[in-house]
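Researcher: Here's a chain I'd like modeled. Treat it as a single chain, no partners, no ligands.
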Amino acid sequence: MVEEEIIQEALIALHKQTGITVKEIPWASLTKREKIGMDHRIRMKTGKEVIEFAVQVKNEIRKMHLPGLLERMETRKEVNWLIISQYIPRPLKDELKGLGVNYIEASGNCFVRHGGLYLYINDQQVTEVRIPEQGKLWKAAGLKFLFVVLQNTEMINATYRSLAKTSGIALGNIGPLIEELKNGGYVKTDKNGNLFLENTSQLQKKWVEMFASVLRPKLKLGTFRFLGAEGVKTDWKNDPALHFLWGGEAAGALLTNNLRPEKFAIYSSYPKIQLMKELKLIPDEHGSLELMEMFWDEEELKHAGKDLNTVPPLLAYAELATSLDSRNRETAEKIKVRYLENDR
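Model: Modeled as a single isolated chain. Structure tokens:
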């Protein structure tokens, strides 16, 4: 569905349910400065009050889209922002509402708050947007494989058996995944018959987005709090990382010295019960630590974070770049410049 159709459908649905009149402001009437960061601009009239909103339009919104949307809003804090989308998953609608971000869904579901205006509708049925079928490359096994070859590009010429062992996937997946990379223009062959990666920046960007929405949810083993820790755990570096690697904010702190962690993630293949005993962890859905499954073979994969007891920089970058916290996104950029761009 194109942008104009999404906007019209959403505004008509809103008018039917609230009686509020909303009109688009002609794009040609806006100055170059006014257009920065927005897709459209609308004017909403409620009684005697007239409110203008800078609009960002999306066919659908997924978790991976939020950091980019929020970053655009941060650049223009002086305007009133509104997201209009054909479909927003319910958990993300709750998250947007919690962040105070205005949105309208094509069905008429909305959260809009400005001055004396408060609209919240959440009972309209909506049909989820169907994502086109993709190859195996962007499913869990493919993302594990890509993680290995993106983190260490030399691995693209390793034996199939070695690639399967290092990425933790079935041997039969390797050949089809490499063919899919070739068909997508991401793998080429040099004059000596060796493979090499092409368009790694584009491949890395797509991997980061898909990791957040496809692979990471499958890796989560639980949420915990540290026994006896009041609020933020400040002595986390004293916990001996014998059977795990630091991910998330802790990895960002160790890799860049640019962050004080408030939330933690650890990746491990060690038994969960044993880790809980060693680190004195208590199950708590509101806790500050997430326990994640280590999906790669740490002994086989060379990476810059080994000496610092962190996950590979690509994984740390992916977790921080898709965070809603601007501190984390800033740290992600430092990781990208220091560890990822220089590796190409």
